[in-house]
Design goal:
Blueprint lengths: L9 H9 L6 H13 L5 H14 L4 E5 L5 H10 L4 E6 L2 H14 L5 E5 L2 H7 L4 E6 L6 H8 L3 E10 L16 H15 L3 E6 L5 E6 L1
Parallel strand pairs: 1-2, 1-4, 2-3, 4-5
Antiparallel strand pairs: 5-7, 6-7
The structure holds S-adenosylmethionine (SAM).
The site of S-adenosylmethionine (SAM) has 20 residues, from helix 4, strand 2 and helix 6.
């Protein structure tokens, strides 16, 4: 993981990673693969936030949008525990194949539903209300995720989103922002202006949004 890229002071970021207890071999292998192949996983510092929030919310039904090789999905599924349902979504079938294998080895395959295709479409096609929705898809799609996900979260549940400070590009003047940056800026505006959410942005790694559904 290239810590220079993120918003936190690199030494502080390094310090935070240095304190973490070692992960199990499956997660360690996934972290190494992600680094080698440049797969943008949340990494263990943000994963622990995800894990802790799922436990505090006592979440049992979770919809993840943008799951890649399933690293964050494993943290979600372990936090939610036995009898939970975690929806994995990714548009890339090869990612889904690797993820399925990782879920088996991590011992959480039974609680994960693997959906391959557009995560927003998959959310439309999946019935029910969720305790947690975690958004990590293409950044230009974040505003659409906001509109689709908020009505699907129970009161007291959480909308979580990664990369909401987007390498600091959120401070660029609007006329130079690219589509992804505009997506993030609009998402942040939406969460803070919604009467249905109580949002906070944790300035960790690349910025992590935690929104309680009111
Ligand atoms: C940042 S990665 C996800 C990392 C994962 N959440 C983790 O931390 O382990 C984003 C993934 O979302 C997928 N993706 C992007 N937009 C998508 C969409 N609209 N529907 C489904 N998957 C999408 C990409 O294929 C990519 O694998």
């Amino acid at each position: 993981m290239d810590m220079q890229e993120f918003i936190t002071n690199p030494d502080v970021e390094q310090y935070m990673y240095s304190m973490l207890p070692p992960r199990d071999p499956v997660l360690q292998e996934m972290e190494a693969l992600a680094q080698k192949r440049n797969i943008p996983i949340i990494g263990p510092v943000v994963a622990r936030i995800l894990y802790q929030l799922v436990r505090l919310a006592k979440a049992k039904t979770i919809f993840e949008m943008g799951s890649a090789i399933g690293y964050s999905t494993i943290w979600l599924a372990r936090a939610a525990g036995e009898g939970s349902t975690v929806y994995y979504t990714d548009s890339d079938p090869e990612n889904a194949r690797m993820a399925a294998n990782n879920f088996e080895r991590a011992g959480v395959r039974d609680r994960i539903q693997i959906l391959t295709g557009d995560a927003l479409e998959m959310l439309d096609r999946t019935l029910g209300i969720f305790d947690v929705v975690f958004c990590d898809v293409e950044k230009q799609d974040y505003p659409r995720v906001f509109h689709k996900a908020v009505p699907r979260i129970r009161k007291g549940g959480l909308l979580l989103a990664d990369n909401v400070l987007w390498y600091g590009r959120i401070t660029q003047p609007p006329q130079v922002q690219d589509e992804a940056t505009r997506g993030i800026v609009e998402f942040n505006r939406l969460i803070y202006s919604s009467p249905e959410l109580y949002p906070c942005i944790l300035p960790v790694r690349d910025g992590f949004a935690v929104c309680e559904k009111l």
